[in-house]
Amino acid sequence: MPVVWFTGLSGAGKSTLAGAVQAELLSQGIKVELLDGDVIRRTFSRGLGFSKQDRDENVRRVGHVANLLAHQGLVVLVALISPYRAVRDEVRERAEVPFLEVYVNAPLEVCMLRDPKGLYAQKLPSFTGVDDPYEPPLHPEVECRTDQESVEISTQRVLTALKNAISDVKTRSAKP
C-alpha cells in the first residue's frame, strides 16, 4: 500500500489534513496508520535534536517505519515537517511502495497566526521557515493550499490521488 507524506511548515495543517484523510479511510474499512511528527519526536526520535543531521535522521527513521508498515498492507500517512528536499527525495527513492508527497502549503504569515502549539511565539532558535530553511517540494503529487481551501476539499484531493495510486498498484499486481 502507499505512503502518503504530508510536508509543510509548522501550523500549515499537516496533522489536521492527515487526520481527516485517516478518518475517511477508516470509515471505508481501509487499514491505515498515521505517523505524526509531534508524536514521533516525543517517542521514537526523542534523543534527536534539531540540527540538519538530526532532522534528516528523523525523516529517514520515519521513512523506514512507513515503508515497513506499508509492506504489511496499511496505507501509511506521515505528517512531518521534513524541511529538507534532499532527504525527502531520498526517502521516496528508498520506498518500495508507491510514495505520494503532499505539500501542505500555507504562507509563513498564516502559519504564524495559526500557531496551534505556540511555537512561533516562543521564537525558538533554528525554527523551520523562520531562521532555518524549509525547502518546498518541486513536484508533489498533491499541493493543498490550506490558506485558500477547506480541509474537506484538501482531503478529497488527497483521497483522489491515493485512490489512483492504489488502483495502479492493483493493476500492476494483477498483470502476469
Tell me the layout of helices and strands:
Blueprint (H helix, E strand, L loop, with lengths): L2 E5 L6 H14 L4 E5 H6 L9 H20 L3 E5 L5 H10 L4 E7 L2 H7 L27 E4 L5 H24 L2
Parallel strand pairs: 1-3, 1-4, 2-3, 4-5
Give a verbal description of the structure.
- This protein has 176 residues and is α/β, with parallel strands linked by helices.
- The chain has one domain (3-169): P-loop containing nucleotide triphosphate hydrolases (Rossmann fold, 3-Layer(aba) Sandwich), CATH 3.40.50.
- Helix content is 46%, strand content 15%.
- It is built from six helices and five strands; from the N terminus they run βαβααβαβαβα.
- The protein has helices spanning 14-27, 37-42, 52-71, 85-94, 108-114, 151-174; strands at 3-7, 32-36, 75-79, 99-105, 142-145.
- Strands 2-3-1-4-5 form a five-stranded parallel beta sheet, with helices on both faces.
- α5 links the parallel β4 and β5.
- α3 (52-71) packs parallel to α4 (85-94).
- The protein starts with a strand and ends with a helix.
- The relative contact order is 0.22.
- The mean pLDDT is 89.
